Amino acid sequence: MQTKNILLVEGASDQKFFNQLLADLPSQVEIEPKIPRDVDAQIYRNGLQPLYKQLKLQVDLLIRGQVSTLGVIVDADHSTQELNGFNNRRDQLTSLLSDKGFIITDMPLQEGNGEIFSHPSGAKIGIWIMPNHFSDGMIEDLFISTTKPSQNDLLNHAKTTIGNLGELKTFADHHDSKAHLSTWLAWQKEPGISPSYAYHQGLFEKDHPNFIALITWLQKVFNPTP
């Protein structure tokens, strides 16, 4: 039976970005879910709901050997929201995996390592919680932390603009980083480009320690040392 490597992420934008990071890995990795309706016809938005549905299905396939390697990347979001934040997100994931028989190790003591859990069957699954597998936040915080120094003035101006919205602000505070990144991207030479295209265009420091840590984790998950 042919097996495959799968990486689960929250949305289409994430898929495009991780396709670039995975391109240099020798192992071929499929990124799922393709679109939310691939998981459930009643789901119309990207995010955790379709990812968790897909995760439960893929974990069973992983244990049965029909999936070779499984990786999961989700946002921590913020602890100001009910049941969100790094600790709660990790608890959600490890609880699901523990119920399936995976051995859950202690929480990491420093950022940027990610985790890999093993199963008595020999199956392994990697999890990474954005932005750094340690703090609250989301993938947008990773991008903001890795922009090139030449972008600092524009990035700071975007942040100041968001902070000065006052009564015009319609989004919740925990989405500030999304608005911050989107505003910065809207002011590029090609307004409104995606984070993946910005990465391709060299607007981020590809050798930034935060990117290196993430890539190192991906390599450990999908190209483990024999």
Brief synopsis:
With 226 residues, the protein is an alpha/beta fold. It has helices at residues 12-22, 48-63, 86-99, 139-145, 152-163, 176-186, 195-200, 209-222; strands at 5-8, 29-32, 69-75, 115-118, 124-130.
Structural write-up:
By secondary structure, the chain is an alpha/beta fold. The chain contains eight helices and five strands, in the order βαβαβαββααααα. The protein is globular and about 55 Å long. It has a five-stranded mixed sheet, sandwiched between helices. The protein has helices at 12-22, 48-63, 86-99, 139-145, 152-163, 176-186, 195-200, 209-222, and strands at residues 5-8, 29-32, 69-75, 115-118, 124-130. Strand 1, helix 1 (12-22) and strand 2 (29-32) form a beta-alpha-beta unit. Helix 4 (139-145) crosses helix 6 (176-186). The protein starts with a strand and ends with a helix.
